[in-house]
Amino acid sequence: MKGIIFTEFLEMVERRFSAQAMEQMIAAAQLPSGGAYTAVGNYDHGEIWRLVCELSKVCDTPVPDLFKAYGEYLFSRLASNYAQLLAAMSGSFDVLQSLDGVIHSQVRRLYPDAELPRFDVVERSPSRMVLVYSSKRHFADLAEGLIRGSGRHFKENMVISREQLPSDDGSRVRFTLTLQ
Fold this sequence. Notes:
By secondary structure, the chain is of the alpha+beta class. It has seven helices and four strands. It folds into two domains: 3-61; 68-179, H-NOX domain, CATH 3.90.1520. It has helices at 3-16, 19-29, 46-59, 63-81, 83-86, 92-110, 140-153; strands at residues 118-124, 128-134, 158-164, 172-179. The protein has a four-stranded antiparallel beta sheet, with helices on one face. Helix 1 packs across helix 4 (63-81), helix 2 crosses helix 3 (46-59) and helix 4 (63-81) crosses helix 7. The chain is globular. The chain starts with a helix and ends with a strand.
């Protein structure tokens, strides 16, 4: 997993909780990397799970809620850092529709070794979108946070429902998004 996911997570923890909470989390996680990340480095995705699980204990917040909050935060940071990619998009559905074809192709150009999730749009109308998230890393809560972050970015009132889909490893989730 690309280091930017880790560096942005640590930044969020320090901003939203505290430097002390961040240090407690890192120490308790006993990470192979020691909790030292570079944005362009590659790290085992299990480390982000360990960090979030430890933050959950430090801050008494459920793990799914932390992943969702991080997804929202991450979207705002990516939107700020890559504003040119969002400039031609008029709403969150445009962003989500272009994830695999446009945005992830740009990510692959910058980071050829990146292992990215899939977002397949199954249905789209002006007020409703159904998409299937697939990733063996099981970051559906993070994906939901990113979706929420896109809605917030475009000032949309979005209702999100979610359904775990049958798969050998539980890696597929269907999101149904409704704009109100």
